């Protein structure tokens, strides 16, 4: 994981840190920075502001933090942070204590980490993505030509004409379109 800290008061002051991280944290917050998906929660944790000492200014300042994944892990562990410290409220009559955030967080079945990677890692990943896209295009083309040939063989074996089969398919699609159009007209008339 590569982390870059940029001083907000002195832009020339930049620190870069490379560290081994074995899990990513998904921040689930209520309020202005609320997150409803895994991507948003990770972005909240990887980008933000921190306060640390500035050697140039000799005092604590606010720094912008941007972290990026520099090497793809074999396994990715993600920690959903669902607890926070709730302050005491005199108005609400509540005491300070640990509270759980009950917000639903959506996550994909296949998670793409590409947007959280460094530029160098993105370049190497793009090569693999391009090769995979080419292979899929070749497979799709082979599957389509194979299906067309198989349909022609089946039609010839059944003694039918391929053109008649195509005309039947066109007629069926026209009838479906007409039915959909009639249903739409009926729905407009009912309104």
Beta-strand portion reads 15-25%
Largest sheet: 4 strands, antiparallel
Number of domains: 2
Count of helical stretches: 3
| Assigned CATH superfamily of the largest domain | Cysteine proteinases
N to C succession of SSEs:
EEEHEEEEEHH
Structural class: alpha+beta
Strand line-up of the largest beta sheet: 2-1-5-4
| Count of individual beta strands | 8
Per CATH, what is the topology of the largest domain? Cathepsin B, Chain A
Please identify the top-level CATH class of the largest domain.
Answer: Alpha Beta
Mean pLDDT: 79
Instruction: Kindly provide the radius of gyration, computed on alpha-carbon positions and rounded to a whole number of angstroms.
Output: 29 Å
